[in-house]
Design brief:
Layout (H helix, E strand, L loop, with lengths): L1 H19 L15 H4 L1 H15 L5 H15 L3 H27 L14 H19 L2 H10 L2
Length: about 150
Amino acid sequence: FYTIVYAITSSVAFGVLLLLNRKGFEAENINDLSGLNEINPWIAALLAIAMLSMAGVPPTVGFYAKLSVLQAVIQVDMVWLALIAVLFTVIGLFYYLRVIKVMYFDKPEQDKLPTIKQSLDVKILLSANGLSLIGLGIFPSALMGYCILAFS
């Protein structure tokens, strides 16, 4: 379950970053995302959803992925490992929220991110993957059921 969720989340995050790349510009630093919300709010929203899912914030499916791992660790009496995982989750949350802060609250640098040209099929694919992070977060049993069937 966690692997599938991480793959979907990563495909959204890296898909957005690849979409931003063009001749003469590559999004290599967090500051390269400055003001992305002003330039393309939908792309910024998709990347924000991916960051929240990676951080494990509800209602994204990343929350249930992290929760399932923590439950498994606690069931085998490794509470110390669960506590370390929670600590690193909180540390990671700081970095994921920083990306969102830069996209929404920092001013865009001139000529850094011009209007993003995207084909309809790319927009549909990224949108479907991004929205699935919330949809599966609200209804995690849809994916969890298939994962349980695969291992039984």
